[in-house]
Every structure is written in C-alpha cells, then in structure tokens.
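SAMPLE LOG
Freezer: B-3
Tube label: C17
Construct: single chain, 397 aa
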Amino acid sequence: MNITMEAARRFLLLKQGLIGAHRFRGKAGALSYVRQAGCIQFDPVDVIGKNAELVLQSRVKGFTKDMLWQLLYQDRALVDYPDKNMAIFPVEDWPYFQRFRDAARTGGQRFQGLADLEDVARKYIAENGPVNGDELPIDGQFYWKSSVHWSNGKNAARAALEQMYSTGELIIHHKDGSRKSYDLADRHIPRAILSAPDPLPDDFAHMKWRIRRRIGAVGLIWNRPSDAWLNIWGLDSEKRGRAFRELEAEGSIRPVQVEGIRDPLFYLPEDEALMQQAVGGEKLRPRCEAIAPLDCLMWDRKLIARLFHFQYSWEIYTPESKRKYGFYVLPLLWGDRFIGRVEAVREKGGLMAVKNIWLEDGVKKTKQIQKAVDGCMKRLAALNGCTLVRRDDPLSL
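STRUCTURE (predicted):
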C-alpha cells in the first residue's frame, strides 16, 4: 500500500491517541494505553512531571498522577522493571523477562558476600515488610554492578535490595518521590505469573516478540538502527532484518510505502482500521499536547524528522552552554504537526512557570494556536497540582 506523508502522520497520531477525540479515558484508559504500547519508559527526573506521567497525561482524558500510582502499587496491574531501559509494563508480561532475572542471578554470584547481604535483607523484609535502603539495617559499602542496574559502588543495603529486585525476588512496593521501597514479589504478583515459565526461551524468538512489541509501541517504524530497539539483548542489523522478514512473512506486521521515504514502514495488522481511517482523510479535531522527552512517539527521532519535519533533541545531558533550548523542553503537538516546544517548571506555592515557548519556523501566532497552547499549559499545571500559571510576558504567546 502507498500512502501520503499526511496519512502516515495521521495514522501515527491516531494510533497514539493524540489527535481527535480521546481514545483513552481515566484509569482504565491509562492501563489500556500501556498495554497497547507494551511499555512506557520511566525516568526519575521530575521538572514538570515524570516522563511516564507526561506520556499518559497527553493521551488519557482526566489522567492524574495518582492513577498511575494506583495501577502500579495498589492494583498491581503494572510493574516497574527494565524493558526499554527502565520501564513500566503490564504485570502479565513478567514471564517474558525471565532472561533478565536469570542474568542478574548469575551475575550476582561473581560478587563475594552479596548472597550474605541478600539473606539479611530477605529475613528482615519477611519479618518487617517493605523497606527502603535507608531503613534496611545493613552497614558499609559494596562494590557491585548488576545486569539491570548500571550503578557501580553502592552502600551495602541498596546493593542487596537492587540485586534482589534485579533477580525478581523483590519488586518495588511503592515510591516516595525518588525513594523506592521494596517488598517480596510473591506478596504482590500472582503465583501463576511468578511461576510461569519463559514463554520464549529461544533468543531469536524473544527478539522477534520484542521487535513486534516495539513496532506496536511506536505505531509505524522502519527496519533501521533506532533507539526504539534499545535493550533488546543481542540484536544486531542482521538479526533485526531477519526478524522483520519473518514477521512480515507470518503476517504479524504489514508494510506500507510512504511518499518521499525509500524504506517501507511497518505497522501491526490489528491497527488496520486506524490505517484506513488515516488514509480516508476523515477530518479530526486538533488537540494541543505537550509530548514527553522519552515518549513512545519520539523513540525514533530520525523518523519523526522525516514525517513531521521536526528536529528534537533532549538537552538534559547537554552542557548548559551548548543547549539550543533548555534543560527539560517538551515538543508541542497541535493537530498533525509539531508547532514548537515549551519549557515549563513547577515552582513553590502551587505555581507553574512557563519559562519559554519557541514556535517552529512558519507557525504563526494566531488566536487559535494561543488558545490551544493555553489550554495545554493549564492541563499540565493541573497534572502537577498547580493552580496558577505564570508566563514571562516577553517569552509567552
């Protein structure tokens, strides 16, 4: 099938629930979106909401931070664990990541004394319940690195907790800000899920499953090197190409040729109705949404540049003197195009400050766009419990 660039953009945004009427509503909608995406990326930085919260806020009508907290730590429908780096995914997918836990267990055996620390932590949690690294009565330092955590050199209590989290014996019971409290996994995850065997013990079959899952997370993507494939162990260009060929031959993914793009893009067969809606040209109500830096939509920024003619770089790790925009800047989507980017921060006293808004070249500052952006900023303020929005006049719309 050959489609226009406009149809490709519309399909992506329909798939992501970012254009037209909201497809996802309330807590059930938040869970539905995470299940559609497979995983959403977690990042602890909280300037104006954490990445996962911003992902859901832009898609889910009426979303609040407490909804995600409940899904993770009360309902246990979602779980924190590595997937595309640190991530949040549906608890029913737990068995597919057995190889992560096995690797952590094997790796931990290389560190003398770590098993003894785990024994102390296991006994303490069994008797006292959830615990964080400051509460666990283990002193000293322990130099260690797991297959899941990239930290090197921890206090001994945190080393024990993070190792047991990596092996799946512990899960995150809850978070208080950035502080994690851990508890025994078998207290919170159903036994049928915990004891289920790895559904895909073959490495290549596992790669194929995860590639298809990532295609579904982005919605439409090509067979090229991409951040969309991060943390799929052992994946190289040859294996990725083979996986795409086999998935297509099986009918598990479908190709589409987009005008102006040489390589075919791929989507999931279950999204065919959305593809036909995008191609049909139905008029869709534009929405203005602030997009998270690690949003599923943005996992392949080269593809975003081709489809939307929008260049985005997350400058959080860029030295201040070399930043073009700012520390934590969010793309602004309106309708089927990115119209600019915004830098907003949560301040004391229930105030959200919009420090800067940059419109893209060719985007005119109309009353319609100003109203749409104002509404987006008010929703962002509400997400963060802010009742006031301050704009610096020289920088605002």
